Amino acid sequence: MTSEQGGPSGRSNRPGGVRRRDDAGRERNRGTGRNRTESAPSQRTRAADPARLVAFEVLRAVSGDDAYANLVLPARIRNHHLDRRDAGFATELAYGALRGQGTYDAILARCVDRPLAELDPAVLDALRIGVHQLVAMRVPAHAALDQTVGLARAVIGAGPSALVNAVLRKVAARDLPAWLAELTAGLTDEVKIASLVHSHPEWIVRALRQALVAHGRDVSEITAVLEADNAAPVVNLVALPGIGSLEEAFDAGFTPGPLVIDSALSSGGDPGRLASVRGGTVRVQDAGSQLVARALAGVELKSGLDGGEERWLDMCAGPGGKAALLAALAAERGAWILANEPSAHRAKLVAQAMAAVPEDAWTVRTGDGRDVGRDHPASFDRILVDAPCTGLGALRRRPESRWRRQLSDVSELGPLQRELLNSALDAVKPGGVVAYVTCSPHAAETIAVVDDALRRRDDLELLDAGAALDAASLTGDLGAGNAAGKAAGNVLSPLPTHRMTAQLWPHLHQTDAMFLALIRKL
User: Fold this and answer.
1) What is the pTM of this model?
2) 190 labeled binding residue
3) Which residues does the entry assign to the active site, renumbered to this chain (predicted)?
4) Exposure string over 10-43, b if 16+ CB within 10 A, otherwise e
5) Does 239 count as an annotated binding residue?
6) 23 belongs to a structural domain
7) Does residue 237 lie within any of the structural domains?
8) Residues annotated as part of the active site
């Protein structure tokens, strides 16, 4: 060794004797004012925290592979063996970052020296995770910075982690109210302001404002609707009637659902850990979906007067949630249901969903629902048309959908929705009932489709869907019907259709925004 490095004994040749080293054997900084800090390279987090890694992997799957967060997240949680607490943290972090993406990207755009589109997508996802922790979670700023930079260093690289560190330090300089004040300064357009504050695309804000008016609500409720979209939804379970039991769920901390019989709620935990859920006798299903299925099953018919077996149809059955509930209800009544699904892969999912129901109560058909009316005219007593739609009513459960959907999707889906409803009206028996359902409150996907059917045909009668939902509920008074509070001559629905249809809302019913129209064939 040289004299500057010290001899074998570890002593320095300088005056003063022993070299300054800490307990880890590292040489201390010389001078009294140069202590190492947490930001020193030797102290920076170099491993990815498992919960944050899960959230990052979910965001990467969503943005890179067009995956759905609700399908990816449970598998990632299991793969990383997260306990209940870490699973809850990962869920809030992933879903929160996805819901807040619009607001967070606007904040990041003020802190990055280039367009966000020029960033590596993985870096942008890491930044979104960091922003959510800094402005919307009870995570200390130093922990959010350290752990997110460590995540970036571990899974992206040292160079990008430096960018993440620099950007997030700028973000941490303000809290969320201060950032929102800066983002909206000088704006007067209510839609633009709501879009930034509540992290929804502008076209969706406009669509939801119009939907409130179309369904008899006040446009001032838009803030409550957007806030409900951004709230973490509870997990809803349904026990298949006559087959499933909720005892295991209640033992695991679930509570009885207040809206629907045989339902349960929970705000945490993985329902996939319940044996009853894995076995298919208890299913994860939003209370709104349960209500519309039960409303159809409960409506009075004028067909089947010969005393024969009722025949039901789920025209758009995939992936099988409503079909399984309807099949169980049908089995209890000695009825039979045909579950139709055009995709072979999804048809298999439907069969799996219905496997817990006695096999003689159901059949799965793989085919185009638009052909059922021609192939099976006047053949069914009850038909569910859960039509493909934009899904604007389920944005709280599918947070990535708001960034994937486009305004053009509404007009593109319209012809399919009308063709499916017309096919169902051909397939239902005289006296039978068709339930037209969408998980969207958009007027073009709901009352406009039903209006068109009533215009084209003179053999239809619109039933009171709000009353049917009330009869299917535990409360008996959901207030989901559109009869109350309607202004005459509503330009969005000139026919009386809107006075007989029903619309559930997340801010009012804590369900997805399910639309229901019940149409009887004369």
Assistant:
1) 0.87
2) no
3) 439 (nucleophile)
4) eebeeeeeeeeeeeeeeeeeeeeeeeeeeeeeee
5) no
6) no
7) yes
8) 439
